[in-house]
Amino acid sequence: MRTTGKIIKYEIRDIARSKFVLFYFVFFLLLTEGLLRFGGGSTKTLISLSNVVLLVIPLMAIIFGAMYLYHSREFTELLLTQPVNRHQLFRGLYLGLAVPLALSYGAGLGLPFLLHGFNAEGDVALLLVMIGSGIFLTFIFTAIAFWISVTYNERVKGLGFSIVLWLFFAVIYDGLVLLVVAWFADYPLEKAVIGFTILNPLDLARILLLLQMDASALMGYTGAVFQRFFGSFWGISIATVALVGWTAIPFWLGLRRFAQKDF
Amino acid sequence: MRPGLNLILYFTLGISVLLGKVLEVTTPTLQQVIAAAEPFDTVMVTGDVHTQTPIEIRKPLTLLGKNGAVLDGGGKAEILIIHHDSVVVSGLSFQNAGISFVDDNAALRIEKASHVRVENNRFIDNFFAVYLAQAAQCTIRNNQIIARNLRETNSGNGIHLWYCKDILVENNRISGMRDGIYFEFVMNGKIRNNLSENNLRYGLHFMFSDSCEYTENTFRDNGAGVAVMYTEAVKMHRNVFIDNWGSASYGLLLKEIRDSEITHNIFRGNSVGIYTESSNRVRVTQNDFLGNGWGVKIQSSSLDNEFTANNFIGNSFDIATAGRQNHSRFDGNYWDKYTGYDLDRDGVGDVAFRPVRLFAYVVQQNPPALILMRSLFIDLLDRAERLLPMITPPTLQDNRPLMHRVVHS
Predict the structure, then answer these.
(1) Would you kindly state where each structural domain of chain A is located, as residue ranges?
(2) Which value, in Å, is the radius of gyration of the alpha carbons in chain A?
(3) Between chains, do A216 and B271 touch, taking CB under 8 Å as contact?
(4) A84 touches chain B (CB under 8 A)
(5) Per-residue pLDDT tens for A22-31?
(6) Under CATH, what is the fold of the domain B33-356?
(7) What ipTM, to 2 d.p.?
């Protein structure tokens, strides 16, 4: 564990020097601050932010994650010549990237709200859900990025695959769901659709936000089914397990690859 | 019975025993007092629980409750029935009018009378509370009506009017009934400043009630919101429709409403703000639609309605419609989703706005698709449809969308 800690410490310093994380933090800070100042009200700001969060975080995490590992390939190889356990090294590299990204996102979003306050009661919960799901998305998509970049040695291939994967989760998957819903319109699909949601971390995060934002639209029969599921103990547990699974499985796949990889 | 009365009773009994003769003394029932009263007398009802019901009034009287006087129906039948004009009932508590599946038992019934005033009373756990049948020029004011029923079938309406004319319903608070306020065949009623909340079915329900005016009422969290049908010349001003949630719940449901005005109302946090079906020539102006699931659901059977100078802010869907037809106008509203520009700075956007999203249509056809709301894919579809409407009604657009929120005059 101490080795992991050392690697994390080194990497954080390295990332700080690359200024990307700083830029990432300032981006969210300025965006939130600007929306709060000119967009009028915390509720509207949060709704605008939700779109950005659901698109930008996965995209940034997956691209930056893949790029970072390709960039530091030589350094990784150097470390591997030292008596360093590969598992520890991979863990260190992963956490050293995901943690600063998650922190700068959380701080960039949270600080302006601390300064400006909230103008509706439900907004605190909404912000917390947004920060929480954003952090999960950071960890998930960084893990996916690492898995991709240890799998493909070619940088272009890896980056291309990352973007396609992001596009799949963000756009194509929902198109497929809509297609299924339209095809099987005669069947009660409420529960099946909940299942589809769990299979896409982006959809899962979106639904968690949706339940906070569009409660009155969701109160139709279908919406009530969703709300009852995701509002219940089981629903919350399943959603959390799914998010943890979405982090753990790509991480574990990447770790296995990394451990066996012939550099 | 009060201690004072008891004392007199015992005293009288004592004397009669002394004389070796038993005299029976009973306090008169409220019905007997009313029978003895002259027209235009005032009957003071003091702080007892009166269980000798039903009580009927067949002459002009003033019935005044003092010190928390209670009329209790004992869960059997009706409590007070007014058969004559110019009766005033004030300051009384009515409770336990009997639940019946055959009769509309009411705590207070006004039957074929006019100029009756019902003021400052409390109605607790009655089947129907105030029931007016073929009444005219009556006033129902400052009453509190509460019930704790859980099922629609054994619960009646708060203020129920049937075949009435020129009735004023003002400053009442109604909760927990089946319908808060119910009108059927009422002409020229004025409903002002009432609060109707947490009723099992509708906060306000009227049918065939022409030329009525509804102003400054609040309808909150009712089972099915407010439903109004088969009526013309309705005026609804400055009402608040709030938090009516559910799959069959509407802030305001209009069915076959004609030549009416809906202005200066606030619709906030309802599943559907206004639902309109076969309603013609209704003017909906200067209203706020805030944070509803659907701001307005309009069926193609509605003709020549006019929506103008309204604010649509924070609704998940602003307007939804089922077909490709649209026969209503939507010009000159403020839409928070409008992204156009205003080059000449006259406060009116230079490009038209289409408030119907393709996704609203998709969800109406396939409800489970609701789970895709706020997805990037759906946003792309919506944008494409707005550029070139293929499925949503092409004429349903705001040609003069406002750049700033309307400040209602």
Answers:
(1) 2-260
(2) 20
(3) yes
(4) no
(5) 899 999 999 9
(6) Pectate Lyase C-like (2.160.20)
(7) 0.85
